[in-house]
Amino acid sequence: MGMVEEERLSSLRLLLVVQLAQSFRGGVISPILSLFIRGQGVSVTEIGLLGTAGMLGWLIFEPISGVVADRVRKRYMVVFAVVASSLIYASYPSAGGVWHFAILGFSLSSVMAPYAIAVKALTAELLPELGRAKTYGRYLSAISIGGIVGPVLGGYLSAIAGYDLPFYIAAAVGIVCLAGILLMRYDDKGGVVSGGREAVSEGVLMTRPFLIILLVRMLYFFNHAFRVNFLPIFLKETPAIGASETEIGIYMGTLQVTAALSQSIMGDITDRVGSKAVITSSLGLAGLSYLGLTLLRGVLPLYLLGAAQGAIFAAAHLSMMVHLMEIMPEGRTGVVMGLYSESENVGGMIASPSLGLMYDRMGAAYSVFSVSGVLILNAALSMILLKGQKKEGGTHIK
Questions:
Q1: Which pTM value belongs to this model?
Q2: What's the pLDDT at 195?
């Protein structure tokens, strides 16, 4: 193994550690964030609008971050985002009122936009070409450990010590993980791709395959908006389920366990059958899983559903990213990831207020049915519009 490849592998491992810590930070507050806000007298419709405020930060700053990431050292962007987000997490316990939460949500997404773009771009640059999906699957499996422990710990701590402690833990973990960023040896200069060649700035970007995967990703984020803003409330306030904070944390942890266990396998399957087949099937199954959510009685079936959803959502996320890496031009990783993330933001900004209003005006079940319908529609569009990539020796080629 040459010096350059050894440096890339070492940096990929450190990047993994940083993302694991970030996964834990998000996981530890995921079971309680919407419940904490709800406890301040905020309605579900207002929580939907808060979700829009949060997505606005991503919407504005991810495209800008994508352009910047192709011109500056991405590691500096990660350091800024981690320090700033730690300060914001520590501010949540003192918040009160819709406007305060809106400012915090907008601020958090604004400073995390550079992190998300820089990390995605670095991952795309550091992953090997051969067996990319399998390697990426194993990478995601390791990152998922933080998402497994975080929700269970966050739900438990909030039940015994109140909602404040998980936010302080999220802030502290961010400061500690800075060591992983500072130790990275691979630190690309803007305008240079991994092989040392000048970036291909003239590469065609807005192709039909790229626009299609943006559409698919946008619709998929109805799922994300519902899970972040409304699902904990649905699980706690629906009489047939009546889950506690601890039980919601266990459900989310169970989902992350099966996601972690399945991602390596899903990566291998994606290398073999192609990203289109995995995208289409996982979206269809995700839609059906939401229909199952309305039929649950008690927490045990909830845990079983969470186990299935973990594998389904992991397959969708992994296969979409692999498909994106198959069609993206070299030297444009920052811009590509910025636009990809922007499609997520558009989907979230459409979904959050509409699902929140529907939840309050028509009932919780209708918002769940809407998410299910959008995901099933997305599966049909993927089947019709996505083009499968050619394979050679079990590995996709560009």
A1: 0.68
A2: 40
